[in-house]
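Q: Hi! First time doing this. I have a protein sequence and I read that you can turn it into a structure. Is that right? Here it is:
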Amino acid sequence: MNDDPRSTWSLEREVVLARVIAAPRERVFAAWTDPSQVVQWFGPKGFTTTTHEIDVRVGGLWRFEMRAPDGTCYPNRVVYRAIKVPELLVFDHGSDEDNDPNMFHVTITFDSQSDGKTVVTLRQLHPTKARRDGVIGFGAVEFGYQTLDKLAKHLGVA
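A: Yes, that's right. Below is the predicted 3D structure, encoded as structure tokens:
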């Protein structure tokens, strides 16, 4: 039996963000998975990203730091769980420590529109409702949309 609360989806633990990006999904997907591109835009406005290790494959890791404008450093770890080029990216995301109890599950879909644009939908599933409420209070929604804005700007379509 699986006792991991992330193994079942619950709306009360979920954060969902969506944005239309005026670029083909292959380009948008590549921006998320190309190590040289993702560090150029990932993170909220004013944040920089420094990669320590990245291996974009199922089971691979992305270990990185996001540095806030005030100099605060946030160590992060992503473990890739599923990759379906160019339509799906699934990973667990948390601090850069083993067995992080606050690690959350992320599913990103890249849906093509007939006009050549891409709908990016990012779904986060947090381990508890309290943790989800905490990240929302911290600014996860605003910061998430800032990150998607930076993605669009990186692709030259903002």
